[in-house]
């Protein structure tokens, strides 16, 4: 396993678990005072909450892996930005969506799938635009320094 992949895993796994845990705490506080690591449909699959939490931690770690390894696509310097973006979107959408379905975050029907896809695409676009504009500003600043 390459050093780059290992570094991404060492970052992505704890980041996914942390985000998942914070999200689940926020949702639990919002909907009541009892902690639930995931939806009632997900919780119903387990005999106790410890098993549900353990499975949730594995799913959150998987989500972190999907996004951290997916970002390696943007390091393929010979590929166009459009190709990098399309591949990254496809990989993260399929990987994250699969894990979200296993976590039972939404029912599997056309309406929910379309809503989820729209929201995923919107969030992806916003994050991509913020990153793109930040990098564009950084490159412009570097070019100004080089021209001085």
Report on the structure:
- With 148 residues, the protein is an all-alpha fold.
- The chain folds into two domains: 3-105, no CATH class; 110-148.
- It has five helices and no strands.
- It is elongated.
Q: Count the beta strands.
A: 0
What is the H/E string? HHHHH
Q: What class, by secondary structure content?
A: mainly alpha
Strand content is under 5%
> Major beta sheet, specifics?
none
Whole-number radius of gyration? 18 Å
- The separation of the N and C termini measures 42 Å
Q: What count of helical segments does DSSP give? A: 5
* Contiguous uncertain segments of 5+ residues: none
Count of structural domains: 2
Measured as a percent range, the helix fraction is over 70%
Average predicted local confidence, pLDDT: 93
Outline the secondary-structure elements.
Elements: H1 3-31, H2 40-43, H3 49-70, H4 81-102, H5 110-147
Helix pairs in contact: 1-3, 3-4
Organism: Loigolactobacillus bifermentans DSM 20003
Transmembrane segments: 9-31, 51-74, 86-106, 112-135
Keywords: Membrane, Transmembrane, Transmembrane helix
Task: Considering the chains and any ligands shown, give keywords for the structure.
148 residues, mainly alpha, 2 domains, 5 helices, elongated
Summarize the structure.
This protein has about 150 residues and is mainly alpha-helical. The chain has helices at about 5-30, 40-45, 50-70, 80-100, 110-145.
């Amino acid at each position: 396993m390459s050093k780059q992949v290992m570094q991404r895993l060492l970052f992505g796994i704890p980041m996914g678990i942390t985000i998942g845990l914070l999200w689940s705490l926020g949702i639990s506080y919002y909907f009541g005072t009892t902690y639930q690591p995931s939806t009632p449909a997900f919780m119903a699959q387990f005999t106790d909450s410890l098993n549900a939490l353990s499975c949730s931690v594995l799913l959150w770690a998987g989500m972190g892996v999907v996004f951290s390894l997916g970002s390696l696509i943007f390091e393929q310097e010979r590929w166009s930005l459009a190709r990098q973006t399309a591949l990254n979107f496809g990989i993260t959408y399929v990987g994250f969506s699969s894990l979200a379905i296993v976590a039972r975050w939404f029912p599997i029907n056309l309406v929910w799938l379309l809503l989820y896809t729209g929201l995923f695409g919107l969030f992806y676009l916003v994050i991509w635009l913020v990153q793109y504009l930040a990098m564009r500003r950084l490159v412009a600043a570097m070019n100004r320094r080089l021209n001085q």
